Amino acid sequence: MPIFNADGTYARYGSFDNHVALIENLDNDAVGWRTIGNIYGEYTIIPGLKLRSSWSIDNGSEYENNYSNTLISAGISSLGSAASYENKNIVLTNEQVLNYIKTFGPNGKHNINALIGNTINTVLTQNTSATGTGFAANSLKSVAVAATRSGSSSRAESKLLSFFSKVSYTYDNKYTIDGSIRADGSSKFGVNKQWGYFPSGGFAWRAGQESFIKNLNVFDELKLRASIGLSGNQNGIGSYAAQGLWSSGANYLEQPGTAPSQLANPDLTWETTRQIDFGAEFGFLKNRLNIVVDYYNKYTYDLLLNVPVPYRSGFASYLQNFGAVRNKGVDLAINSTNVQTASFKWTTNFNISFNANKIEKLASDIALGASGRNISILRQGYAVNSFQLYKQLYVDSQTGNAVYEDVNKDGQITSADRQIVGNALPKFSGGFNNNLVYKNFDLGFSFIFQQGNKIMNMNDFFMVHGNLQANIGFLPRQLERWQKPGDQTDIPRLTADSRNPAQNGGNANNYGGNVANLSSRYLEDGSFIRLKTLTLGYNLPAAFLQKVKLNKIRLYAQATNLLTFTKYGGLDPEVSSQSSNQNTAGYDWATVPQPKTFQIGANVTF
Q1: 471 three-class SS
Q2: Rounded to two decimals, what is the model's pTM?
Q3: Average pLDDT, stretch 535-551?
Q4: CB neighbours (10 Å) of residue 531?
């Protein structure tokens, strides 16, 4: 597509502007400030007993101005469109901790570390926005000079009060037992259940200190540990999530009115996780090889979910504690010093995590995602972030029609034939880092990887759809579609728009067909290996540093995202751009890929 039409105006396809037009005529300017401050005081009451009190503030603000002028689609019909936003966020925290540490007994074999404290936390957010349309000229971009103006504002405040205590006892630097409990009260929850209580306990054994282990001459370090505990979560809900809310705007006959907008839930309470951990740490070859392995089993119940309710209630959903999900897996970390001489050192760090996720309790299926197409689904017995789609089996080589799996064997492809065909969670993920130092030079490179996750390629959904619908273009891969009998491909023939999915593989091959809207054809393997960083550095010699009276100068060159190995057909497999909803991961809406970056710099220590 050309940048300009013959008359000099910007070329567009349907309602889609070209990138040059957007770059030159869409203004998005934002300025943000963040101030973080902390002050504390400590007082030693008696030896080993210390009181610490601290106060902190995290104050952030952002001011944003947007303007779409009359040369692009967003501003043509409105004679220019502008918006201004101001967002403020303040977090205030006050904490008191009384800590007691005591070592006693023969040779100091007994050690006690105990603490008790409380935290007070307040979060205040304020948002103001203004929009305007209709501008006398494109050089006038402020909402204040718009012909039509509107605005809105909001304010939210939440408070958290916590009390906590922990006691740890160690004997002979071999055996450690600890226990803790905390009580948290949040203003976000219902008046009946604002408080949650979360105990935990653990045990550790430094078996490598035992004489019978030392006599094996195998381990330089051997430590076994286990723990169990509860923790609470209030993230993901609003400051007034448990309250019955009313909203203005329900006007009638030009008279202002209000209407209920949220059901109250006085019993809304903490989402709770019960976690069991078993771990072991090993050291070999004079601790040049260290291995850490952990098994965990996390059971999260009383999930904070918007559960669907009958529409006769006047609401679509109701926030409540319902459901449970389990995560269990293994984490493995290996750190090694491969070579170490007077002038050369090479170290390697490798880590990998395996995780299995399963929804164990849910009132009913919850479908969401893909801008109302409800491709993502939460269903009991399956992992979160699962994709529910019509499963395309193949493209008929004689007709060019897509053939979908008839799950219920009724001879028709209907909504009953949608099935879970994968999820966005990787089976495993990890990293691999190497650092090499030779005299004053250092070289480091880092790989990251993940395997087994699925990505819904919404770019292909729009651009390799096989339809003749107006204002929707094609990617070159559309040329790989079926075109004549005998063609072997996974892309069906071109068809006209159809809303009838009843015929298996009939004319519902394309973007407009109900089946193709939700086809597994667009679901791809998101596994990848990526060279995340590559860094080369040089430390200037000590003789030079003495002359310039500096402690250290390190010059370096660094590159990121140099190489990616993947079968994914989109621009970047390391993507999840559906929304902030954690239950709709694994979507790619033609997301701009992470850039390759190159930089040089210097670290100077005075």
Answers
A1: coil
A2: 0.87
A3: 91
A4: 17
